[in-house]
Design goal:
Number of domains: 1
Oligomer: single chain
Radius of gyration: 16 Å
Number of strands: 5
CATH superfamily: Winged helix-like DNA-binding domain superfamily/Winged helix DNA-binding domain
Structural class: alpha/beta
Strand content: 15-25%
């Protein structure tokens, strides 16, 4: 499992960077963050101790559904679903739809943080 590189930069700079990439004025280098947060506080909320522990459980148990992950962690499915959706929006978790359930897959359990 790869280490995800995460960047922290103000929203205006993230927007400027994205526009420069879209115009072709800037090409991201290998190893640059693909996931961006606007503050250390928002990063800390998403990658809290509990959520990093959740990612490790997902890596170790490879749950077949959110219900199975809830049983393994003792968290309620509703709370777990909201947390996983947030992490999915940032690209930290994949939520794979299979038949009648959603299988959560952790993309990483280790992170490298770059504050710009």
């Amino acid at each position: 499992m790869a280490t995800l590189v995460i960047g922290i930069m103000p929203q205006a700079q993230i927007r400027q960077r994205a526009l420069a990439i879209a115009r072709g004025d800037y090409k991201p280098k290998a190893g640059e963050p693909k996931i961006w947060f606007t503050s250390m506080k928002s990063l800390a909320e998403v990658l809290s101790d509990d959520n990093r522990a959740l990612l490790r459980v997902m890596k170790e148990t490879r749950p077949q559904s959110i219900s199975a992950l809830a049983a393994a962690t003792g968290r309620t499915p509703g709370n777990l679903s909201r947390t996983l959706k947030t992490m999915s929006n940032y690209g930290i978790v994949d939520l794979k739809r299979e038949n009648n359930h959603v299988r959560p897959v952790a993309k990483a359990t280790t992170f490298r943080i770059i504050a710009a």
